[in-house]
Design a protein that fits this description.
homodimer; 456 residues; alpha+beta; Uridine Diphospho-n-acetylenolpyruvylglucosamine Reductase, domain 3; Alpha-Beta Plaits; 4 domains; 19 strands; 37% helix; 20% strand; globular; FAD-bd_PCMH-like_sf (chains A, B)
């Protein structure tokens, strides 16, 4: 049982769709975050589910690790093959299989990206709402339980995946869920695979809930003299029951970053970015009520974007905010944090984090999906500086501990990957061992994305 | 290892909170549906989580089955102790532990009922939306992944349970989830226990999402000459993006039943019952748009209920519809069906079912949560008539097969229990074996609600 034997068998099955060139291995050993490169032994490019099952079957027979790869946009090094083996790249399984407008769902292959899906959906009046910013693959988004700017209204991948086809560690192919909108028929296997980061099975097909394009959309940017007032505005808006489609926060440093990167031209102070979806009348009412709440709490310099091109520019600016933060310090890489806390603890969590970063030796703009209680500090480090890394690790650790102390989680949307696994015992206690028992039940050899999610 | 030894140890631990009287055993061996009575060997009444853990630990040591009991309102005999053993009655663990208005959540013990929770919440301006009709316990609702009339707007228990405390089969106590609104931190254990029907662990505490009481509410009843027009109205309303809080269907026979039972005074034809929640302006707009859609498709005799007492009467009538159907045939019991299909298949599913029942020898009013594609035929049988039972079983089997053929599920909200387990292989295929593997990992002795959910 060796990886080499598995590669021989895979080469015989896949021919030139088993990549072993240095560039291929380097590409699939890299990551968007700060983790050291770690190339796989080979990259498989399956064309259909049967081929995925065959790949996993061969790897199972030889005890060879198998790591799924979507678009490579993960921020926690989820797809780094820490024990080598085969990376399964789903880029050739990227078809939109079916759109069912009456059922408001789409069936897709895992390599399809969310932007490609939404482009394909344009003529239908429907869209897929989950929006993590990056043009991630839908399989990868399911595997990390991704969310993003619209989760406050439309939920995360947990809420928007209706059904899956999954290849298990022994090569069996199962279907979970159905096209019905709800079910009480047994354990929620769909929910178990969503967020399992490729450790329980490889997702080969997804049935996704779609939403109707809203009749009207209004977006706005609004500045605040103090971070606390911005956060209070978020809490008051939620409490008042105004159905926001998006509510995002940028602190002063993040605002400066998007000004420099996207020529946003915003006053250099904390900002909220909001969006409302609905009928013309509903959006007008929601916008007006939000405007009153924000103004009462000191919001100023409102800029409403009602034309599509203004809105697109606004959200493109937001989606590029990570790159804008990186550009604050040329050559920097980022240690990215992703805490999510109960709304009642949001102000304390953001303020304590900001004070911690201000007192540190590195920069760390803060931004986030504050309607969910989820925010990120983008901790900028010189890749070659051990002291930068140590300082960022210290700050990230304090953020994680603070989130847990306040009743939250160390990862709201990015997942565990390489970066968050040290916090699992503190977050989950004995429940982490239960995750390990489930992993052992479905992947007793431990060949699926070893080193991730569960106790090792 | 015998049940008798377990009972001795439990009696020593619990004293008179281990019930063994004939009336206690009879109560916990009964069910709301048509299944034969099946009393447990004893009934334990724990007062706190530690006591539940002790009970399960004792039972594990002696290989004694353990079955959780909430309010006894299950419609599929979930809590029938098919291998005897101890029923754990949570009626003394029925406290509302905490309400956190800023976080819009409540922490409750599993024996608290949904009506008691909502009574306790009245002064807060918040409510718990999941509404299965019966005054079920919240632990039981989580265990069966219950939903009901409001799922079309607020989701099912899957969407409204944020966190759990669970006693595992070996007596360990774990916590899943957190008070944060979302998380990507590992396997979704909360989602795994929700809907597991007491086979993976005993829920001892729940953290529930609450909703703000809507500023305005409008309800209406509307008749249709033909069932098809009512179902088309549902589909058109969903397609148009009108955010319904409830949309319910009663066929002609169910309408006759509620007329007789609740003096509803409706014309004897199929009806839709709808409700809208939101701001004054939003509810007015939604009501008007629904009214136009329904009128276009032949809806008539609209009755709007805007005063709270009118609305309460309307939904009390709906909630009593099951008892109203039973009363159509004095002395009858019901075999209850619970299919859920994709919306595109709803018209076909309802019409084929109605035709099947019309051609049969028994009565079977149809009603349901049609906004989710979920409907029930209440198949009325004389408890002593073997031919009635056979006819109902034949009809229920055809409904289940039809739902699966149309891409749906055999149970939208009631769960598997005793009645739906024969359909599991057809619905889930190899995924049912995966459920069995998960069960074996967490309950290797099979002491938790044996005979339910997974392959035996």
């Amino acid at each position: 049982m060796t990886i080499a034997q598995a590669l021989d068998a895979l080469a015989a099955r896949l021919g030139d769709r088993l990549g072993r060139s240095p560039s291929d291995l380097a590409l699939h050993g890299a990551n968007e975050a700060h983790f050291p490169a770690m190339p796989p032994d080979a990259v498989a490019y399956p064309q259909d589910t049967a081929e995925v099952a065959a790949i996993v079957g061969i790897c199972a027979a030889h005890g060879c690790p198998v790591v799924a790869w979507g678009a490579g946009t993960s921020l926690e090094g989820h797809a780094l093959p820490v024990k080598g083996g085969v990376t399964v790249d789903f880029s050739r399984m990227n078809r939109l299989i079916e759109v069912r407008p009456e059922d408001m769902l789409a069936v897709v292959q895992p390599g399809l990206t969310r932007e490609a899906l939404n482009t394909d959906l344009r003529a239908t009046g429907l869209f897929f709402p989950v929006d993590p910013g990056a043009n991630a693959s839908l399989g990868g988004m399911a595997a990390t339980r991704a969310s993003g700017t619209t989760a406050v209204r439309y939920g995360t991948m947990r809420d928007n995946v209706l059904a899956l086809e999954v290849v298990l560690a022994d090569g069996r192919v199962i279907r979970t869920g159905s096209a019905a909108r709800k079910s009480s028929s047994g354990y929620d296997l769909t929910g178990l695979f969503v967020g399992s980061e490729g450790t329980l099975g490889l997702i080969t097909e997804l049935t996704l809930r779609l939403q109707g394009q809203p009749e009207a959309v209004a977006s706005a940017v609004c500045g605040f003299a103090e971070m606390a007032a911005a956060v209070e505005t978020v809490i008051a808006t939620i409490q008042s029951g105004i159905p926001m489609a998006r509510i995002e926060f940028l602190d002063r440093a993040a605002t400066a970053a998007v000004n420099a990167y996207s020529q946003a031209g915003l006053p250099e102070q904390p900002h909220l970015l909001v969006e409302f979806h609905g009928s013309d009348a509903a959006v007008a009412e929601q916008s007006a009520r939000f405007g009153e709440i924000a103004a009462d709490l000191g919001g100023e310099d409102f800029r409403w974007a009602t034309r599509p091109e203004e809105r697109n520019a606004l959200w493109k600016m937001r989606h590029n905010a990570y790159y804008a933060c990186l550009a604050l310090r040329p050559g920097a890489r980022a240690i990215i944090t992703d805490v999510c806390v109960p709304i009642s603890a949001l102000a304390a969590a953001v303020e304590e984090t900001a004070a911690d970063i201000a007192a540190s030796s590195i920069e760390g703009p803060i931004l986030g999906h504050v309607g969910d209680g989820n925010f990120h500090a983008i901790l900028l480090v010189d890749p070659g500086s051990a002291s930068d890394h140590a300082e960022a690790a210290r700050l990230a650790g304090r953020m994680a501990e603070r989130a847990l102390r306040l009743g939250g989680t160390v990862t709201g949307e990015h997942g565990i990957g390489m970066g968050k696994i040290p916090y699992m015992p503190a977050e989950h206690g004995a429940a982490w061992e239960v995750m390990g028992s489930l992993k052992a039940a479905l992947d007793p050899q431990g060949i699926l994305n070893p080193g991730k999610v569960v106790p090792q």
